[in-house]
Amino acid sequence: MSVDTHTAPAELSDEELTSLDAHWRAANYLSVGQIYLMANPLLSEPLQPEHVKPRLLGHWGTSPGLNLVHTHLNRVIKARGLDALCVWGPGHGGPAVLANSWLEGSYTETYPDITRDAAGMARLFRQFSFPGGVPSHVAPETPGSLHEGGELGYSLSHAYGAAFDNPDLLVACVIGDGEAETGPLAASWHSNKFLDPVRDGAVLPILHLNGYKIANPTVLARLPETELDELLRGYGHDPLHVTGDDPTAVHRAMAAAMDEALDRIAGFQRAARENGATDRPRWPVIVLRTPKGWTGPAEVDGLPVEGTWRAHQVPLAAVRDNPEHLRQLEQWLRSYRPEELFDEHGAPRAHVVACVPEGARRLGATPHANGGLLLRELPLPPLEKYAVEVDKHGATLHEPTRVLGDMLEDVMRATTDRRDFRLVGPDETASNRLQAVYAASGKAWQAAVLDVDEHLDRHGRVMEILSEHTCQGWLEGYLLTGRHGLFSCYEAFVHIVDSMVNQHIKWLRTTRRLSWRAPVASLNYLLTSHVWRQDHNGFSHQDPGFVDHILNKSPEAVRVYFPPDANTLLSVADHALRSRDYVNVIVAGKQPCFDWLSMEEAKVHCARGAGIWEWAGSEDGTREPDVVLACAGDVPTQEVLAAAQLLRRHLPDLAVRVVNVVDIARLLPSEEHPHGMSDFEYDGVFTADRPVIFAYHGYPWLIHRLAYRRTGHRHLHVRGYKEIGTTTTPFDMVVRNDLDRYRLVMDVVDRVPGLAVRAAGVRQRMEDARQRHHVYIREHGTDLPEVADWTWDG
């Protein structure tokens, strides 16, 4: 046994120690019961095989440590009157968080059938990881949770996101030592350089080192303590150590460490808020070393379990079939002395829950973990204030994201006092033309500032760190605690957070089915610096596939938009920022773009999601179109309109319909997506039997996938990105991928019946134009004047 703390022991009275230990033992008992039992919850009779679940699932190894943290958080919350939230990084330790929620009563308040008595305990046990029950991980169904236990690496960034602009909130964050090996977690330690001790709350990381992952030792647990301290101090933290396996000693050391950490946090906040201190604090971190599977079986079948990787999940795996395992399980459960912890009816005894805070201060009842309860409407200004004037379609150009930046500046300014809106991104706010926001708020920064730096602000709400994982984690934590935000990112690099957005979408989909979970603000992505204007950075910066990934997910929770100009971007952004419980992906360019629609036209078109641009085509209303030119995305829209102009010039008798799609899910059948079109509506727009040449921003097969069941699918021909790219000119990018105006005209000639012979000369002129382009850019290094200086003459 060893106990070590760098602080003086807390003066726990014997009564306090007894109560804390009883609470911890009760939580351990309930954790084991959830993994194993489906009957006989209080062991009121000898344990029988039929009392044990037929399939044993769950994670015991981390649960005793989580229970210890929960017990001691209860103590300090109650003693200090704190508002607190805990992010449980080892979320696979679901039994522990459920056990504590049941003990404090928040679980019964959320699920009244799981009563705080023997019958309710039996239901709690039976439902765990059982068909029709609850997941084995910390999940949306778990009261007090905002961090899904199904994926590791994001707990600390979630915790900081929750603390931003919550000055009275303590966010404890338990970090598992397996999770601590991940890249996202390693980067998120730097979040302390962005935490404002004046306007933000505090984060207390608790690094739980129990030594093992599923089958291997963990890196940080095997570092010498001096080396670990050097690492944590290098991150800007001051470590407090609690180490041991004797419960009494560990309780005393943990209480002392908690008190010391919270005293330091209060001191830093007081110095900044009352005395104007500007030095970046060295925030405390608790390093908790306890055995994996602590208090569980020491050995099973002659092999060591407690303190080894074998304790990770289910230490006794054959309880129904192996009498010795059954005996060990009963001995294990009775070692917690349940008769001392629960009365004859199964309710927790008074001394067991004496440390539990009351009401909304209970960790399972805090409204900060159900952020929709705290959410306020975002004060969005009228779009007309920012709309670009469009007296004639395509007569002027603007940079769409720069126009949006003006709107976001006012949103940031309108939330100055409320502090419930943040803009996050990996070092790209100005690059993405959103720098107008700096007039309302600078960039959050607590580290050193040099004379050459611009827009750094100790109290700023623009968040930039060159870690997409950290940006995503911050924003998720911020949104889930009841605030609003936008994530701006280069299109190609948002893929870095693919797995993170997976979990967030699953979270949203699940919460929609929980009546007690209030809707939260949507997670909004603005993807710019996109594939068609990465001609200068080249192939490495060209990837439009994030939308494919998103559209694989739950249709009820995802939306993807391709606004073709500045006014449609304003309309789509306004809609996304007002929405709830979605992941909205907006793909828009930052380079000068033609203004196609007035503000009123943009609002109507975006509400429709897809529509015919009558002014762009050559239909006369007397017959069906000969061909449909469809487009989604700003560059594809320009190429389609240029193709329509060429067709009007060279084939004036051809009836061309132009269709623009903003909401890509409109292509899906209505029974597959809430925004999908009925077959009747789809055929009315795209026709049932006429060729459709579709110029799409991303990978062409996505459009085929969305529309494959439509009547006219065999007439659908899609042009898009084909993974052909390099450092070249803007127009050469579309030529290389066969998305250019000349190729689109050639497609029309090839696919409209009768044109192949009649318009062979037109096709040849288009092919000649492509060849002329290749020669010209190699000689001049820029695009053909007829392309670079093109204007819409509609």
From TrEMBL:
The EC number(s) attached to this protein equal 4.1.2.-
Lyase is among the record's keywords: yes
Which controlled-vocabulary keywords does the entry list? Lyase, Thiamine pyrophosphate
Respond yes or no to whether keyword Transmembrane is given for this record: no
Q: Which residues form the Xylulose 5-phosphate/Fructose 6-phosphate phosphoketolase N-terminal domain?
A: 12-373
Name any cofactors this protein relies on: thiamine diphosphate
Cite the PANTHER family for this sequence: PHOSPHOKETOLASE-RELATED (PTHR31273:SF0)
Q: Which InterPro entries does this chain map to?
A: Phosphoketolase, THDP-binding, Transketo_C/PFOR_II, Xul5P/Fru6P_PKetolase, Xul5P/Fru6P_PKetolase_C, Xul5P/Fru6P_PKetolase_CS, Xul5P/Fru6P_PKetolase_N, Xul5P/Fru6P_PKetolase_ThDP_BS
Name this protein carries in UniProt: Probable phosphoketolase
By its UniProt entry, which NCBIfam families does this protein fall under?
A: PRK05261.1-2, PRK05261.1-4, PRK05261.1-6
Q: Which family does it belong to?
A: Belongs to the XFP family.
The Xylulose 5-phosphate/Fructose 6-phosphate phosphoketolase C-terminal domain extends over 590-792
Class in the EC hierarchy, top level? lyase
Please name the source species.
Streptomyces canarius
Q: Which CDD domains match?
A: TPP_PK
